[in-house]
Amino acid sequence: MKKKIAVIGSGLSGLSFAKFIRSDVEVHLFDKSRGFGGRMATRRESDYQFDHGAQYFTVKTTKFKTFLAPYLSKGIVQPWLANFVELDRNKIIHSKKWTIDSGHYVGAPYMSSLCREIANEQNVFLNTEITKVEKKNDNWELTDSNNNKVDGYDWVVFAVTPQHVQNIMQFNFDGKSRLTSNTLSACYSIMLGFKNAFQMNWEAALVTNSHLGWVSINSSKPGRQGGFSILAQSTNIWAEKNINMDVENVEKHLIDELSDILKVDVRTYDFARVHKWRYANIKQKQKGKGYYINSALKIISVGDWHINARVESAFLSGYKAAKKMNEIM
Ligand SMILES: Cc1cc2nc3c(=O)[nH]c(=O)nc-3n(C[C@H](O)[C@H](O)[C@H](O)COP(=O)(O)OP(=O)(O)OC[C@H]3O[C@@H](n4cnc5c(N)ncnc54)[C@H](O)[C@@H]3O)c2cc1C
């Protein structure tokens, strides 16, 4: 009989695990969201689109480069040749044109396109929030938020953040805290769409001396359609301090901040929305293998946070765990 594995979370780490596990294993992925991508998310609103999670990614390892090659040839991943600046609040202190060699990539036409493409080859159940995982007759049973149950899984993969592991994993074992105790910092993304584009001489900015840490002209990324759009992100520190602030006040504050940084009144927007990432990124680089496998319990944990807050780390975590499982299964 085919072995069955349930993967909770269909971000890049869960999808990479599913893609590289032996083909004679049946894999089912469950995700609470209605769209693909996890933190490599894209939001489409009226005439605008916004990558409100990961902004771009870099490629440091041969494994990731090899994995991306077919998606690059299909145009699902494309280099982003942005004019990049570093801003000290509203003053440019450094500028650089990103080139093919500098290696900054995005999903196209959306950041979520890469995950969507991988997911097309997998059994993914969206809109399915797993709330409980229990051992039943030596196999795993999963319960969702509508109290539907699916069972008969030999292994279960937690491809979610530590806070989500904490919520779902209602059983104890030695070393559990390794999977639940890491804290990811918060971040607010502000999305602004404009009827009329305004002149900018850069497309991506790292900002210091501000409550914003990043600003990009989202509509300048390759393959994007729709109106002129800006995506800015708060610093983790500001988001953590203001995690309970009303969303209207967060929006107002970040728009005021952005107006000052750009020296343009962005209150002329046609569309504005804030997204709160409660668990955006792990603060420090982690040591270790980049995943967790417990062969006695038959549980696995993957995710960027096993390494650091990078798209490439999410890939490596899922990939390495699958390769290890292929050896031990
Ligand atoms: C604001 C922001 C900016 C970033 N910028 C960059 C960047 O510029 N460059 C870069 O390389 N990286 C960046 N990152 C990090 C990058 O997005 C992540 O490293 C990567 O997407 C993590 O993938 P993952 O699979 O580990 O986790 P996720 O993408 O978080 O996947 C976890 C999935 O689990 C699902 N889930 C959670 N709980 C449940 C449940 N109970 N039941 C079912 N499903 C569940 C979630 O919906 C999600 O889809 C950024 C992240 C954020 C949030």
Describe what this molecule looks like in 3D.
The strands form 5 sheets. A 7-stranded mixed sheet has the order 7-6-15-16-17-14-18. Strands 9-2-1-13-20-19 form a 6-stranded mixed sheet, covered by helices on one side. The two termini are 13 Å apart. The relative contact order is 0.20. It contains 8 helices and 20 strands. The chain is globular, with a radius of gyration of 20 Å. It has 2 domains: 1-32 and 128-182 and 285-329, FAD/NAD(P)-binding domain (3-Layer(bba) Sandwich), CATH 3.50.50; 42-111 and 184-282, Polyamine Oxidase, Chain A, domain 2 (Alpha-Beta Complex). By secondary structure, it is α/β, with parallel strands linked by helices. The protein is 24% helix and 33% strand. α1 (12-20) packs parallel to α3 and α1 packs parallel to α8 (311-328). Residues 8-14, 30-33, 38-40, 53-57, 129-130, 159-161, 164, 168, 187, 189, 233, 277, 280-281, 303-304, 309-311, 313-314 line the site of flavin-adenine dinucleotide (FAD). The site of flavin-adenine dinucleotide has 39 residues, from α1, α4, β14, β18 and α8.
